[in-house]
Design goal:
- The structure is a single chain.
- By secondary structure, this protein is of the alpha/beta class.
- It folds into three domains: about 5-95, NAD(P)-binding Rossmann-like Domain (Rossmann fold, 3-Layer(aba) Sandwich); about 100-310, Mur-like, catalytic domain (UDP-N-acetylmuramoyl-L-alanine:D-glutamate ligase), CATH 3.40.1190.10; about 320-455, Alpha-Beta Complex (Protein-Tyrosine Phosphatase, Chain A), CATH 3.90.190.
- Helices cover about 35% and strands about 20% of the residues.
- It is built from 15 helices and 19 strands.
- The chain has a nine-stranded mixed beta sheet with strand order 6-7-5-8-9-10-11-12-13, sandwiched between helices.
- The longest helix has 16 residues, at about 285-300.
- It starts with 10 loop residues before the first strand and ends in a 10-residue tail after the last helix.
């Protein structure tokens, strides 16, 4: 756990007691700060209090005593309307920061690599951490990826914190300048929280805030928003700028051509690695992730041959196109992290003969991103709140069944795959939706899929079919 020594003896408010907020409250208390913690959910308050966290109702407190509010990233402080606690803090002149800002203030000697983007940031963050760790560097990996920033272990000079940064977290991190900052892609998401697309793009661009040479910016150039940001940074010339792509050759950057990773950082266009030989990085979208991680590791000082060798051993990430079983010629892939159509489209592009389980709590926008890849789908099995809407949008484009629940969808998908006898059948959970209608989070949804698959693929008597 990180010690926030600079808060010793000071009152500090913590609003939101989910995973990151609870970790922040405990770290601050351990650092001998006077913690005033609160959550609108009585269950979370009770859980925090049971772990020794002091509760103070921030809707009725003396803001004149406070200088800092640590706000959980899921709580709005601007759009669509500020939470009342955030509004009270602003009115009192109290700074509003996130837990990653506290980490940056406490761990000033370490290096920082930040990764953001609408899609792919978890895989890229984990992959960068794997590359640096395997290359012998001291590394801590966390942030939006799952491990709260203040639950990480402290690092000395030469070590790196590799942090997945959501747009919400970037807005709440005011003083950190990343040694290497990665922006993968930008497509519409969370627009209500940023006041529209322009606000969302601006939030993502802030990951490059105050970078100067030799700090490095790694930017995907496969969408218009990121291409404009890349051009802006190149014109300004403040930091080193590396373009990455899974679609085109990029001068002075890293790109993938037909699965071959090409390193042109030194202008030599060297074939670094055949990504088709890395089974944990399937599909064109993962080629972009690999190019970004490769460029980030090079910018952090790891030698090119070492990076390529380390990437071959990447074990993959849970809930991101994770193969969780195989039986009777059918593979089962858990892509529960695909919580929007753009993410699900990447999975649909990665396999043939797909029996696709989709649905949940739908997000804004339509399914247009999915349509080019429906040719790979034999049948769709719809679950959750989105079932009827998805059925309307997919009708006539793909054969489908409304199943309602995950267990029923999985059973129907297996039965269809067995009936069809496809040579490379893949039962794919890639929901294109949030999970909150039926599950606590995407992890819980993915774990339930894993459990159900384990039941289906348990050893059976010779000749017995998957049921």
């Amino acid at each position: 756990m990180i010690e926030c020594f600079y808060m010793e003896g000071l009152p500090v408010a913590v609003m939101g007691l989910g995973k990151s907020g609870l970790a922040a409250a405990k770290a601050l208390a351990q650092s001998k700060a006077e913690v005033w913690a609160w959550d609108d959910d009585p269950k979370k308050r009770a859980e925090a209090e049971a772990q020794g966290v002091k509760l103070v109702d921030l809707a009725d407190c003396d803001w004149s005593r406070l200088t800092t509010l640590v706000l959980s990233p899921g709580i709005p402080h601007t759009h669509p309307a500020p939470h009342p606690v955030a509004a009270a803090a602003k009115a009192a002149g109290v700074e509003i920061v996130g837990d990653i800002e506290l980490l940056a203030r406490a761990q000033r000697e370490a290096g920082y690599i930040g990764v953001t983007g609408t899609n792919g940031k978890s895989t890229t963050t984990a992959l960068i951490g794997h590359l640096l760790r395997t290359a012998g560097r001291e590394v801590q990996v966390g942030g939006n990826l799952g491990t709260p920033a203040l639950s990480l272990e402290p690092l000395e000079e030469g070590g790196f914190f590799v942090l997945e940064m959501s747009s919400y977290q970037i807005e709440l991190t005011v003083s950190l300048t990343f040694d290497v900052a990665v922006l993968l892609n930008i497509t519409p998401d969370h627009l209500d929280r940023h006041g529209g697309m322009a606000g969302y793009v601006a939030a993502k661009k802030r990951i490059f805030h105050r970078q100067t040479k030799p700090r490095a910016a790694v930017i995907g150039v496969d969408d218009d928003h990121c291409r404009r940001i890349h051009a802006d940074l190149r014109r300004a010339g403040d930091q080193r700028v590396f373009a990455i792509s899974s679609e085109i050759a990029v001068k002075g950057g890293v790109y993938a051509t037909d699965g071959m990773l090409i390193d042109d950082i030194d202008g030599a266009a060297v074939a670094a690695l055949d990504l088709r030989e890395v089974p944990t990085l399937p599909g064109r979208h993962n080629w972009q992730n690999a190019a970004a991680a490769y460029a980030a590791a090079r910018a952090a000082g790891v030698a090119a041959p070492v990076i390529a060798q380390c990437m071959r051993g990447y074990p993959g990430l849970k809930h991101r196109q994770e193969q969780v079983g195989a039986a009777g010629g059918i593979r089962f892939v858990n892509d529960s992290k695909a919580t929007n159509p753009e993410a699900a489209a990447k999975a649909l592009a990665s396999y043939a003969d797909i029996y696709w389980i989709a649905g949940g709590k739908p997000k804004e926008g339509g399914l247009d991103a999915l349509y080019p890849h429906l040719k790979n789908v034999r049948r769709a099995f719809l679950i959750g709140e989105a079932s009827r809407r998805f059925a309307r949008e997919l009708e006539g484009r793909v054969a489908l069944e409304q199943c309602g629940e995950l267990a029923k969808a999985l059973a129907a998908a297996v039965a269809a795959a067995q009936h069809d006898g496809a040579e490379a059948a893949v039962v794919l959970l890639s929901p294109a939706c949030a999970s909150f209608d039926q599950f606590a989070n995407f992890e819980a949804r993915g774990e339930e899929f894993r459990r159900l698959v384990a039941e289906l693929t348990a050893p059976r008597r010779s000749g017995e079919r998957v049921q």
